[in-house]
Amino acid sequence: MIDIIYLFDSQKSHENLLPLSFTRPVADFRIGITTIKEKWEALFPARYSYYPVEYLREKYGSGPGTGQQALFINGSAIPTNGLTEAAASLLPGEAIVDDNDVIAFRGTTEDLENGIYTIKECKAEIRRIKYVFDIFLLNAIQINDDFFRITSHKDSMPADSTNTIIGPLTDPEGRQMLFVEEGANVCGATLNLKNGPIYIGKNAEVMEGACLRGPLALCEKAKVRMGAKIYGGSTFGPYCKVGGEIDNSVMFGYSNKAHDGYLGNAVVGEWCNIGAGVNASNLKNDYTKIRVWNYHSHTFMRTDLQFCGLIMGDHSKIGVNCMLNTATVLGVGVNLHGAGFPRVFVPSFSEGSPTTGFTNVPMKKFHDIAERVMSRRGLCLNDDDRRIYEKVYEVASGFKK
């Protein structure tokens, strides 16, 4: 019997998924409608805890005690029925491995970290977030999976008669394609269900004139503003406000892109703000494949991507009318403003513009801004968060030299 499952982060996985993993375990990433942890809890019921990199453990959990047997699952792995069955069947000392990374292991922390295990063959599909861009690449299929799981035994609130609905309200299997949770308000919008379902979370709002195309997820108390054009494969986490034109992008929660401007093939963390008129390129003018900054290798990694837009760490801000080159990566606590294109990698806690240059954001100033931003949602910056940001500040200094 499984008492508790630990969702762990290897150092390599943590570094490959920066800047988003600076401030949270990988299993706390939102993809589709829910976080990875919530997917595991739904498909493989058990008690769950995190086992992240060391500086995150004070807030998220420190793993099992010395010599204690447990089931460990890689936080970057997205559960499927086959993978959950394979993980549940592991015997002590056995591990499932994919591309030299442990996906699931039953044993002690010491054996996991020292690589002492026997590899067990796994024929199930292993779907993982290896790099930050995998979040938007996999998001559409995860919206579909989450949608049908979440809504299968529930009834949607009726769609308001002022909406224009394109496509069938049920698929060939008779499943709902539009689901509106209790308290949501959707009026005067165009909802296209031909390419996938649309999920409207509890107390969310879609204002008049907005055009939404599935698969799409709008989570609890998120808001789509008037006239927005939202393409498929997009997820907006709790309390996000979005407007303008957005395509195949994920916003984890509590972040805003409320005005006109373009965002595509992007991932935005929490507590971010993107000002009016900001346009972020997702395609190079010469149509060559894209290189993306990778923290693990401390360089730009080559990819097979034709499209990749903004990657934005928590508590970063972009001022009005800023322009961003293809595959720009902003770390945590970046404050970007002014004319011109910034470099495509801006380290955490940097403030400035392409024309005036960048300076460090003092820790006290960052904390003061974060407190003001979070208080608008009735939340506060606690001591655990402060210590995490101070550690990220130390790490970020290494990328500014």
Give a quick set of tags describing it:
globular; single chain; nine-stranded parallel beta sheet; 401 residues; 8 helices; alpha/beta; eight-stranded parallel beta sheet
What do these coordinates show?
By secondary structure, this protein is α/β, with parallel strands linked by helices. The chain is 19% helix and 29% strand. The chain contains eight helices and 39 strands. Strands 12-15-18-21-24-27-32-35-37 form a nine-stranded parallel beta sheet, with helices on one face.
Strand content of the residues, in percent? Answer: 25-35%
Estimated structural class: alpha/beta
Spatially, the strands of the biggest sheet line up as 12-15-18-21-24-27-32-35-37
Quantity of strands, as a count: 39
What would a concise description of this structure say?
The chain is an alpha/beta fold and 401 residues long.
List the SSEs and their pairings.
Layout: E1 4-8, H1 11-16, E2 30-31, E3 34-35, H2 36-43, E4 47-51, H3 57-60, E5 70-74, E6 77-78, H4 81-88, E7 94-98, E8 101-107, H5 109-114, E9 118-119, E10 127-128, H6 134-151, E11 164-166, E12 178-180, E13 185-186, E14 190-192, E15 198-200, E16 205-206, E17 211-213, E18 216-218, E19 223-224, E20 229-230, E21 234-236, E22 241-242, E23 245-247, E24 250-253, E25 256-257, E26 261-264, E27 267-270, E28 273-274, E29 278-280, E30 291-294, E31 299-302, E32 311-312, E33 317-318, E34 323-324, E35 329-330, E36 335-336, E37 345-346, E38 350-353, E39 357-360, H7 363-375, H8 383-397
Parallel strand pairs: 1-4, 1-5, 7-9, 11-14, 12-15, 13-16, 14-17, 15-18, 16-19, 17-20, 18-21, 19-22, 20-23, 21-24, 22-25, 23-26, 24-27, 26-29, 27-32, 28-33, 29-34, 32-35, 33-36, 35-37, 36-38
Antiparallel strand pairs: 2-3, 5-8, 6-10, 7-8, 30-31, 38-39
